[in-house]
Give the backbone structure.
Amino acid sequence: MTEKNWPVTTEIPVLWGDMDAFGHVNNIIYLKWCETSRVELMCKIWDLGALKMADVLSENGMGPILANSSANYRIPVVCPDTIYVKTRIKHIGNTSFGIEQQITSKNNGSKIVAEADSVMVMINYKTGEKSQIDDDNRKNLEAFT
C-alpha cells in the first residue's frame, strides 16, 4: 500500500474550552478543525490569502460551497494537546470534489484520532447555480490529490 500525499497539514492547539462535560473534546470541534484545514487547502489551490466572498463576486462568481461533511471519531482528545489535520483532494467530479482528512494528535503519537470526508460543490454565487469544474480548476484541484 502506498503512502497518500497530504499536501496540507494544519497544526491547531486544543483549547480548554473545546472540551465538554464528558471531559474530552466535543465532537463539533473536530468539524471546526476540519473546516480550518479545508480553508487552508482551498487558499493554496487557488493561491489566495483568504477566502472572501467579495473577491469571488468581483471575479466570475465561481467558488466552492460545502455540501456534505462527516467524521469518524476514533480516540478521545483532551486538553492540553496539539492536533494535526492532514487534508487532500480525494476525488474530482463534474461539479463537485471530495476532500479527505485525517486527524492525529501530539499526545497520541501517530494514532489517528479521527477521519473526515466532505463534498464541495462548485457554484456560481451570482446565480446560485452549480457549475461544471472547468479545465483550469480541475488542474488546480488535481495538484492537491
Q: What stands out?
A: The longest helix spans residues 27-45.
